[in-house]
Amino acid sequence: MENKTEYIGKVKLDYQYYGGRDLYVDGSEDELLDIVKTHTKSEYNRVIEARKSWPILYHLSDIRGNIVDWMPISKDDTVLEIGAGCGAITGTLAKKAGRVDCIELSRARSLVNAERNKEYDNINIVVGNFQDVEKNLTEQYDYITLIGVLEYAASYIASENPYEGFLNIIKKHLKPTGKIVTAIENKYGLKYWAGCKEDHLGTYYSGLEGYVGVDSVRTFSKNGLAKLFLNCGICDIEFYYPYPDYKLPLTIYSDAYLPVTGALCNNFRNFDNERMIVFDETKVFDNLISDGMFDIFSNSFLVVAGCEG
Questions:
Q1: pLDDT tens for residues 234-273?
Q2: Which of 143, 144, 186, 142 is nearest to 298 (CA)?
Q3: Which domain holds residue 27?
Q4: Of 100, 201, 227, 265, whose CB is crowded by the most CB atoms within 10 A?
Q5: Residue 72 lies in a domain
Q6: Spatial contact of 108 and 174, defined as CB atoms under 8 Å apart
Q7: In what order do the strands lie in the sheet with 251-254?
């Protein structure tokens, strides 16, 4: 592109690393851009109800922001949002933080992000591959977010172990007291045993079976995630448990506030794909809770991790 920068409202888009072609889109971006141009945020829920489309729900639901809204991010803090997508989390971060720098591979998605959040003067979006952008990134941040991003590290990090390689690169841009915020599916999440398809591949049990023959995506167990962070020297690790999952979280549990029996009864909100119903998840969750095993089978994890401690 000849013009290396663009402003939409108060949001700056930087195209110096953009190769001119979007490598990651789901086909909904044009429709989303039209919606955010012609509707206010207060009208999004009405549009979601009318369109009955998973991408529209996923990208525009205000529930998405719950994953970070509770965190103690302040106007003294800077945030690096890697994989900002269509901006479902960006607006929530911008309300809380002093500045939000986004890195996003897709220009189409970045335009949706900028248009829906154009009233914020503290959002900067760099469009391009993270590995290219990172080479010239000199700042250190209070928070770095990976919301639905870590699982794709093999697709954009050239490394023998792309997941550790990705975290080691990110560490360089974290303040000594900073936190990496990671939201990701649990490969042993109860919903996958109960008949939901693996989110990224759309196939049954592929995560449970260890992603045989698949190199492009990985999710992890709780122990697997902890080991991954520890191998990178990231030792201060706190696990949280978004329910029903991190994509549309209604409650976020922690090791200090775990669910009680009877609490996990919202288990059939599977909007993105058909599913089987193998057993009653509420009853199984109740047994897992009673046996102190909920954390192992939580559908998703939210990990807040740093190098202190």
A1: 999 999 999 999 999 999 999 999 999 999 998 876 666 7
A2: 186
A3: 5-257+296-306
A4: 100
A5: yes
A6: no
A7: 5-8, 11-17, 123-128, 99-104, 78-82, 141-147, 174-185, 300-306, 236-243, 251-254
